[in-house]
Structures are given as structure tokens and as C-alpha cells.
Design a protein that fits this description.
binds glycine; Creatine Amidinohydrolase; 15 strands; five-stranded mixed β-sheet; binds manganese (II) ion; 15 helices; Creatine Amidinohydrolase, Chain A, domain 1; alpha+beta; three-stranded antiparallel β-sheet; about 450 residues
Length: about 450
């Protein structure tokens, strides 16, 4: 974890923002896989990590905005725990590491909250996303556990988002480390992308790199020759020449900061002319968008800029037609790029998504579009220095979507359906980088990962 001052300072800032009531942060517990003692890989709650730092299951943090006091609730280990897990630090020692002097056993938490509620004090909490946390909150707050998400504090959600959105220097250093692990994962994936190799071999090898160099992957690896399926988690294919392989993979550092990178590689390492044609379009959307990302410009502006590049170039190739601005305004480009350009990234790969996407990327003035494609944009607001975003345009040939739109005659003035069949073998191409917004522009984080046709081909050879 970081030094104790980091957590003290963050909590002090939250105290200034909320001023009254209490905020309860329930850390994650172990989640059983197939029987209670055989658990999934433990992942701490990101807000608990942000304010209290500890990567240990079974703790809770409490902030009292009226008294200014912070607490850690947790249980000291007994001899049985020591026999199985070895000696563990006391709750007192752990609390001091995040700048907190006051501790109590978990059992005491219910009593403290009961006392606060009896005095009609507000108990703020963030929307829980795990059943276990919902049950604990329901028990402590005497509410229906199924209602805990809707009862979460909007004031606390907004305050936390305002803090976590702007990354501190130490956080950016962590994200750069995570991108550097992703560098190793992606270069390995490119080198292994050869005829006859199984997707599973590459998937397992690069997952191993994430575990060997950091805290594992930041999300389940997407690795497939069927890149037209955006989040394809099946890895059963054997690579064949003529296909493109999408690798969308990132790592967490040991402190749980994420990276999220996508590269697309032709099987065998050499692009055909048709593969190159589509690849260069996606690459242009990626690099041109990165060139203009800076404070004041919004992620929605950048999204539409990338969509217009894709539509313009698809028209050049003869796959689209008509007026590009009209086509993009109508949403015709979404046949090829049905997702948003990018999302915030930090302690979560889709940063703070558990707090509610619309609180992060939208507000009273900027509302989410209902149009297919644009509706998947996770963030529409202007960039600020300290934001970390992914820039991830893509171009996909999704047979089922093409067939449906064609049968409906949808956007027939903008799309040359008769030309699309020849491009179906491409599947999908996505190129994704992680970008820090600076005072004047931006910085692509981490060691540059091969991206141009030349760089990818050189890496593969
Ligand atoms: N890793 C999924 C995404 O790019 O958002
Ligand atoms: Mn990704
Ligand atoms: Mn992403």
C-alpha cells in the first residue's frame, strides 16, 4: 500500500466534502468458488482500497464527519488462524498503516450504526455490487438487502467520483507500471500469433505474465480470432492464416491499478491488403483521437471524431456512401463501431463503474444518448487534467447485425451492403491505448506497444 499520509489526506478531503453524518465502507470478503474454504482470487473493493489501502478480506472502514474521527473495524486473528495462515498483524497495527488510531471488532459495527441511527444521523454508503455486502449492509442498517443499491448515498457517490476521477502522481505511476506489464503480455501475444497455435495457449501464457509481474489481469482476457464479438471470452480456436486475432488484455499492479490495452494481429504476422485497409482505418481513428485529446474537449467530441474518421474511410473503401456527417448523426457508422470510444481507468479497469456510469460520465446537462452505438458511450463529459482514459476505436463485421440491418433496409442510403460479405473474414479489429489528460494535452501511458502495421509485422517476425 501507499504511505499512511496518502490515505489520511484522501479521507480528510472527503470529510471536507461531506461535513455531516457517517460514511460506511464495507471491504470485500472471500468469495467461495465451489466450497467455502476454496475461494476465488481475492479482490478488495476499490473504494476501500482508495481510502483505507488494505488488501485483506473482512474489514470495514467508518468515517464520522461530525466528530472528524475515522475507524477500522476488523477481527484479530486467533491461534487457529495463525496455524493455517501464519502470524498476522493486529487490527491496531493495520489501522495505523492507513493513519487510523481507532479500531474495534467487527461485532461492534452494528452497535455503532444502531446508535447513530437512533440519533437520526445519516449513514452514507456506496452502492454494493456483491450479495455478501448487500446482506451485511442490510443487517447493520436494518434495511432490505435487496434495496441497498437504491438506498446508496448520491452525495457520497458524487464526492468519491470527484476525487477518484483526478489521478494523483503516485496513481499515474502505478497505471504506467500496469501498462508496462501489458506491454509484455501484448508483445508475447503477437509473437505467438501463428498458424496452428491454440488461442488457449496464448491466453494462458499472457495471463501468467500478468500474475508473474503484478496482481493478475484487470479483467478477463479477450483473445479471439472472432474479434467481431466484442467481449469474446472463448479461447477454443486454433489459429489459421487469413484470420485476425484480437487481444484485449490488461494487468493490475500489486496495488490494483489497471491497464487496458488492445492490439489486433494477423495470424502469421503479415497483413493482407484487405486486413491492412481496415487496420489502417482503426489506427487512424486511434492516433487522430489521441492527438486532439486535451482538457476542454469532451470524450463525446472525441468519440464522434473517431466515428467520422471510420465512416469517411469506409466510404473511401466503398463500404459506406452518402454524406458522412449525416451518416454519423443518424448512427449508421455503428454497424461497424457499435461501442463507445473509451472509458475512465484507475483502480477499476472501467473506473468506478460500480458507483453508476451515469454519475461518472453524464450530468444534468449532458444526458446519455438513446441511439444504438452512442448509447454505449460510458463517458460524455469534458476531459480534465488528471483524467485517465482508454482510446479504443474498433471496426467489426458482425454477420448477425449486418443481416438484420440489411433485411430491415436500415441506413441503405449510407451502407453498401453488397460489398460487406467480402470483409466478413476480418472479424473485428480494435486498437486501445491508455491516455492521461495533462494540463495542455495528453500522454499515452507506459512503454509504447507495437501498433503500426510495420511495428506489428516486425514484432511478429
Ligand atoms: N477491456 C474491455 C474494454 O476495453 O473496455
Ligand atoms: Mn480493453
Ligand atoms: Mn477498454
Amino acid at each position: 500500500m501507499f504511505k499512511s499520509e496518502v490515505y489520511t489526506k484522501r479521507r480528510e478531503e472527503l470529510h471536507k466534502k461531506l461535513r455531516t453524518g457517517l460514511a460506511l465502507f464495507i471491504g470485500n470478503t472471500e468469495a467461495p468458488l465451489n466450497y467455502p474454504a476454496n475461494t476465488y482470487h481475492f479482490r478488495q473493493d476499490s473504494d476501500f482500497l482508495y481510502f483505507f489501502g488494505h488488501d485483506i478480506p473482512g474489514f470495514a472502514g467508518l468515517m464520522d464527519f461530525d466528530s472528524g474521527k475515522d475507524w477500522i473495524f476488523g477481527n484479530d486473528t486467533d491461534m487457529e488462524d495463525i496455524i493455517w495462515m501464519g502470524p498476522q498483524p493486529t487490527v491496531k497495527d493495520l489501522a495505523l498503516k492507513c493513519g487510523i488510531a481507532d479500531t474495534a471488532p467487527m461485532m461492534k459495527l452494528e452497535e455503532v450504526i444502531k446508535d447513530a441511527l437512533s440519533k437520526k444521523r445519516k449513514v452514507h454508503f456506496l452502492p454494493p455490487y456483491r450479495g455478501e455486502t448487500k446482506m451485511t449492509l442490510g443487517l447493520i442498517l436494518k434495511e432490505n438487502p435487496c434495496q441497498m443499491k437504491t438506498l446508496a448515498s448520491v452525495e457520497l457517490i458524487k464526492a468519491v467520483i470527484s476525487m477518484r476521477s483526478i489521478k494523483e502522481k503516485i496513481e499515474i505511476e502505478e497505471i504506467e507500471k500496469a501498462v508496462d506489464i501489458a506491454y509484455e503480455m501484448h508483445v508475447t501475444s503477437m509473437k505467438m500469433c501463428k498458424q496452428g497455435v491454440k488461442e488457449q495457449d496464448i491466453f494462458g501464457t499472457i495471463e501468467g505474465i500478468a500474475l508473474a509481474k503484478g496482481g493478475g489481469t484487470s479483467f478477463p482476457i479477450i483473445l479471439s480470432v472472432n474479434g467481431q464479438t466484442l467481449h469474446n471470452h472463448a479461447h477454443g480456436n486454433v489459429l489459421k492464416k487469413g484470420k485476425m486475432m484480437v487481444t484485449d488484455a490488461g494487468a493490475e499492479t500489486n496495488l490494483h491499478y489497471a491497464s487496458d490495452i488492445t492490439r489486433t494481429t494477423p495470424v502469421g504476422g503479415k497483413f493482407s491488403q484487405q486486413q491492412k485497409d481496415i487496420y489502417e482505418i482503426v489506427l487512424k481513428a486511434n492516433t487522430e483521437a489521441i492527438k486532439v485529446a486535451k482538457p476542454g474537449i469532451s470524450n463525446r467530441d472525441l468519440h464522434f471524431m473517431a466515428c467520422k474518421i471510420i465512416a469517411t474511410e469506409m466510404k473511401e473503401l466503398g463500404l459506406m456512401k452518402g454524406d458522412v456527417d449525416e451518416a454519423v448523426a443518424a448512427g449508421a457508422h455503428a454497424l461497424f463501431m457499435p461501442h463507445g470510444l473509451g472509458h475512465m481507468m484507475g483502480l477499476d479497469v472501467h473506473d468506478m463503474e460500480a458507483l453508476g456510469e451515469d454519475y461518472i460520465g453524464y450530468n444534468d446537462e449532458v444526458k446519455r444518448s438513446k441511439q444504438f452505438g452512442t448509447s454505449f458511450l460510458r463517458f460524455a463529459l469534458p476531459y480534465k487534467p488528471g483524467h485517465v482514459f482508454t482510446v479504443e476505436p474498433g471496426c467489426y463485421f458482425i454477420p448477425e447485425l449486418i443481416d438484420m440491418w440489411k433485411a430491415e433496409g436500415k441506413f441503405k442510403d449510407f451502407i453498401n451492403y453488397s460489398k460487406l460479405a467480402a470483409f466478413l473474414p476480418i472479424g473485428g479489429i480494435r486498437i486501445e491505448d491508455d491516455v492521461l489528460i495533462t494540463e495542455k494535452g495528453n500522454k499515452v501511458l507506459g512503454k509504447p506497444i507495437p501498433k503500426t502495421v510495420k511495428e506489428v509485422e516486425a514484432t511478429c517476425s
